[in-house]
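Our preliminary data section would be incomplete without showing what the modeling component actually yields. Below, a chain of 53 amino acids is followed by its predicted structure, encoded as tokens that our downstream tools consume directly.
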Amino acid sequence: MITDSYRNTQNVRRFFKIQIGPEFKFNRPFMAWLKKNSGLTFGDAVVAYRTFF
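Predicted structure:
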């Protein structure tokens, strides 16, 4: 779950690299999306990343 206090930790980065692939990198638009969408899941974030970023 993405919370209001969400942080880009190594565990989160590892999760996205596993789900999206080694090319995953945090970028400003994606980080803004994460902050804007608290309450959604990391699965939702994976779909958003693949769709928009």
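The first helix runs from residue 10 to 20. The mean pLDDT is 96. Preliminary results of this kind motivate Aim 1 of the renewal.
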